Amino acid sequence: MKNNKPKEKGLFMFKLVQNHKVLYFISLILIVSYSVVDLLKSILMSYIFDDHLLDSISSLIVIVLVFLGVYLIVSTLQQYVVEVLKNKIRYSLNQNLYQSYASRNIESFQKKDSSEILNEFNNEVNVVIDNYVSSKLNVFSLTISLILGSLYIANLSVEILMFLLFCAFITIFINSIFKNRLKKNQMNYLDSMKQWLCSIKNLCRCFSDIKILNLEKVFCDGLDIENKNIEQSTLKNNGFIKILTSINSFISQAMFFLTLLFGIVLIHYNRLTVGQLLGIAQASNMVIMPIVNYANLRNMIQSSKPVLQKLLDNSICSEENEPIIFDEQIHDIKIKHLCYCYGVRQILDLSNLVIDQGKKYLVIGKSGDGKSTFLDILTKQKKADGIYVNDKDLKDVQFSTYADKFSYVNQDNDLLPFSFEQNITLGRKMSKYSLKDLVTIFNLESIFDKERDNLDFEHLNLSGGEKQRICLARAMYRNKKWLFLDEAFSAIDKTNSDRIHQFILSNPDLTVLSIEHKVTKETVSLYDKVLLFENKKIVSMDVEEYLNSSF
Ligand SMILES: Nc1ncnc2c1ncn2[C@@H]1O[C@H](COP(=O)(O)OP(=O)(O)OP(=O)(O)O)[C@@H](O)[C@H]1O
């Protein structure tokens, strides 16, 4: 069953701070306090001039010093707490993202391009913090300033307040015209960044082929085009925001001077005192700045919303509904009817095949016949209908508990970013096999002696065969009853391969399904059954039958 949860929209800020409610609340209180202190400055100004405090310099100095002290404390606290909040949100966003990725099934994860994931962690989270969270908090702070400033000015001169609000309306209107353009520019910028990262990833992945095939210029030309796209889209995005910002700040300057002129006219008609005009001029910043900045901040918020929506969508766990916890050993796997397609191309069309516990199956067939796909389906890395494990529909079986009952090794298994020892034991102390024995059987002594405690083990240039032997040793150390091998011997020399085959296949409790291409008569004879892939079907035969017909 697909998780058809509808996309949640809106209330983004609430979702972002839901794990940090207390800190968010404290930040809001400090923001309000800061605005109150700012308003005190206007009141102080008008008080100083109208109540002739200028005559008493000592009280003036005391009042100003007290004010500055309070201002310093509140403003520092506010800045610091808001910064802490932003960092907590960044941490939670990253945490939600990687936890949601880790909970995905293998198939859905593989569909995602790694550069897209890197881009999410690197650029998109920053866009959300810098453009969305900061702007939202600023909007709140400016709203409080606007309310307090407006109340103060309304108390002294309703006309000036009306004038300021009228200018505000015009500014917001001008900015809202460009709303969609801003969203589009932001998405274009992120797209071009994603493509560039993707090309750099390809450059790293194919570097030796690029050098050998003399393709450096082709790749650099491609990167140049993408680099140019980034340059242009960044300029379009940031440049456009900067132009709007500067128009808005021009409007704010004009409003300040118009307010002063308006106030002087009112003084002329005895409707205002000088002190009150100074108070209004000071407080007008509390009205003008929010209005102008509100337009700028709204631009930033609008432009970052699509990114935030995408990040939140990706943070929603997309795990399938798998109700059956699989806490028993695998007795058998029945393929009742398996029909598997990639797009419109059918790869497998099998029926009535049973894989029994304890038997050893050699899986062979022409390249591209679907053997790996078959193993991926049995190990639930790919989803398909018609497979039953202990008569339970494999589709409904929980992946993690099922995966705990088998080991799987493929030819491309890379080493984990752990030390040599941990790569085999995965930190488990107990196993049927001792680490020392496995090191001997899998001929890993030279690596073991040299690199036992090296935590940068993954960076060693081990050969393909050495890596495969370590992965096979890990599979045996895990001591599971079922072992799925997908060309797990492909890079191992004959002597090592024969010895390891002998060791694995002589274990009577172990069920083995092993895909192999180059296999000798001696090795084949260690198996019980051969599963031969032909024309989307599997022919199952006894090993003697296969040996008689093929060797
Ligand atoms: N994710 C995919 N999307 C589309 N086609 C795929 C995908 N994975 C594999 N195929 C195709 O399905 C076919 C079967 O692939 P599969 O890897 O299962 O074959 P195989 O028998 O294991 O081959 P080989 O012996 O060469 O490893 C191949 O033609 C392959 O190109």
Account of the protein in words:
- GO terms for molecular function: ABC-type oligopeptide transporter activity; ATP binding; ATP hydrolysis activity.
- The radius of gyration is 35 Å and the shape is elongated.
- It contains 19 helices and 10 strands.
- The chain folds into 2 domains: 9-314, ABC transporter transmembrane region fold, CATH 1.20.1560.10; 332-550, 3-Layer(aba) Sandwich (Rossmann fold).
- The protein has helices at residues 12-17, 21-50, 57-102, 106-110, 114-156, 158-176, 179-205, 207-212, 216-268, 274-315, 371-378, 399-403, 420-425, 435-441, 445-451, 464-478, 494-505, 521-524, 543-550; strands at 332-342, 345-356, 360-365, 387-389, 392-393, 406-410, 482-486, 511-515, 529-534, 537-542.
- The structure holds adenosine-5'-triphosphate (ATP).
- Adenosine-5'-triphosphate (ATP) binds at residues 342, 347, 365, 367-373.
- The site of adenosine-5'-triphosphate has 10 residues, from helix 11.
